[in-house]
Amino acid sequence: MNRSGAGQQARDSRTRLLSAALVAGVTALVFARTLTCGFVDYDDGDYVTTNPVVQAGLTWRGIRWALVTGHAANWHPLTWLSHMADVACFGLQPAGHHLVSALLHAANAALLFLLLQQWTGRIRPAFLGALVFAWHPLRVESVAWISERKDVLSLMFGLLTLLAWTRAVRAPAGPARHRFRNLALLAYAGGLMSKPTLVTLPLAMLLLDYWPFRRIGNGAQPRDVGGTVPGRFFCRSLHGWWPLVREKWPFYVLAAASCVITFVAQKQGGAMASAEVLPWEARWANVPVAYARYLLKTLFPLDLAVPYPHPIHWPITAVLGGSMLVLGLTLAAWWLRRRHPCLWVGWCWFCGTLVPMLGIVQVGMQSMADRYTYLPSIGLSLALAGLLQHWEGRSARTTRGLTVLVGLWLVALGLLTWRQIGFWRNSETLFRRSLAVAPNNELAHNNLGYYYARQQRWHEAIAEYQAALALRPLYPDALNNMGHALTELARPAEALPYLEAAAKLQPRNPAIWNNLGNALADLNRLDEALRAYRRALELDPSHPDTHNNLGVALARQGQWNEALEHLQEAVRLRPNHASSHSNLGNAWAAQGRWAEAEHAYRRALALQPDDARTWNNLGNVLVESGRWSDAEAAYRRSLALDPRNAETHFNLAQLLLRQGRTPEARQHLLEVLRLRPDHPEARSQWERLSTLETNLHPRTAVGPTSQE
């Protein structure tokens, strides 16, 4: 190569890298608004906020757990590790988690630009195609939802797979080709370990053999990336495709293994809808409707919902209309395949990679979801870039016109994306928006209710759960949440039927058994409660809430040794949970082990310093330890937080009496009797004090005086 050619190559390389950096930068700016969003009550608890293993950060125990767990009805160890790394870096500050997802999405935009540039040979079509993908409002769910880290992470590995595979296809036979092929396989394994939706990627790679690689069709001769050049094949025959299919066999093996693992994980996790809940005819009817709706949302991304509820029975007009649209577009793409092969490849990519998410094997009860377009939309961007490449050389006027048109569309997409991100600010804004655009959305009602429950807005929560159950009476999550809310409102008898119904629908859900145990314990049916708690631990031995609640129930039965074991396990599994430390302190105190109890209470107060009850209990322990001044300070701190706590007033009165400070003690006893007139010990203490004072200071009767 001459010097001028090498210089031109270097300039082209710099231009590509600068363009990729620009794509990433502007994408990061568009999605910077996600840093103002918080966690949402939609799987973020399972993935981060209430997951004790993830909350521990990157640990050897966490790494082992990530490799073997089917938690959240999926096997995606790299996704778990990414969440652990976020916690290690940012704790539970959501902005840090959102920052990582936004940066991964920006990196994906840059990688897609590099791919489109290699496939089309042009920078401007690749630039516009990558930005249409990256700025589209349908991307918001994948990026702004922390639980969907698996989307952005898996696609990053998927794009790296395609970059390495492109180099392998175009490299000359030899070590370089094998090296790129192995890198592609390694990246593909990483993608499957982030999210199994990449199982369709080998089929997309076959499409690329038609265009842009042109390894078959139009007189091209197939070439084996493994290094073997096959003999002569008839290009249009199945025999002509066979070497291209055969060379990708390691990718098929990984995809098949991922399918099996995912099926088992989702089956065991109870994520798959049964045929009784969603009949097979309803699933097949959803396929053409979903394709049509995804296309419409791509062209007109308005009224996006989380998720889109399944109506069970689509109108026949919707099914026929969707079928005709899909069939018509397929025939048109096939008709134009020679003149515009990008249309055929892009359309097949879009349709093929959507297949696992169309609900034939139904996971959840949504008919579609924005996040499901993350990989399939690459096909549409490829088709757009290919068309722009074809038209770019026609005339400068045509090129300018198309660039302006796509540029205006990009501006509109960016503004809609910025607006859509705002709805992800918190659970209330998200699900209220979803209900505004999709009113018959039982999941949105249920999750909005859960948000209210976390705010202790119990009556609002119950109203939302009732709305969810009105739409879907056999909705296990809403039944479980309704039972939990009623239990928290001290209505365990009303809660019991809901929880029993939920347990029948999802007998392998430990959270339901835990809540059922709580209701039974509140009804003093302790033996039944213990059985429910033990069932929950059979299903999930590392469920911290159940260990905590079982420990409390065992303590109520006087089984102190076993109670301490479970309470200590609850603290070990979730060291940042104040209530577990407080309950452990209660168990130590009941056994007279004051030092251990004090340590547990102080740990609880370090995590939750405004817990009046724990300050009171700490005061009791300090009294028993003979540290009266410290005990008095603890009681007064408790009363500062909760002045209406009758028990703390009584405990402080007792301490003051022991110190001979009777007038102050009388004031607190009076307050106890004002708050709880039926408090027997306070009433008895007050009467003793009154009797004592009468005996010490007998009254002298003073009669009327007479004047002589």
Question: Which structural traits does this protein have?
Answer:
elongated, two-stranded antiparallel sheet, disordered C terminus
Model description:
It is a single chain. By secondary structure, the protein is mainly alpha-helical. It has a domain at 9-422. Helix content is 70%, strand content 1%. It has helices at 3-30, 44-49, 52-55, 60-68, 77-90, 94-120, 123-135, 140-144, 149-170, 175-192, 201-210, 238-246, 249-268, 280-299, 316-335, 341-354, 377-392, 396-422, 427-437, 442-454, 458-471, 476-488, 492-505, 510-522, 526-539, 544-556, 560-573, 578-590, 594-607, 612-624, 628-641, 646-658, 662-675, 680-696, and strands at residues 308-309, 366-368. A two-stranded antiparallel sheet has the order 1-2. α7 packs parallel to α18 (396-422), α20 (442-454) runs antiparallel to α21 (458-471) and α29 runs antiparallel to α30 (612-624). The longest helix has 28 residues, at 3-30. It is elongated, with a radius of gyration of 33 Å. The relative contact order is 0.06. Residues 226-237 and 696-708 have low confidence and may be disordered. InterPro entries: O-mannosyl-transferase_TMTC, TPR-like_helical_dom_sf, TPR_2, TPR_rpt. Pfam families: TPR_11, TPR_16, TPR_2.
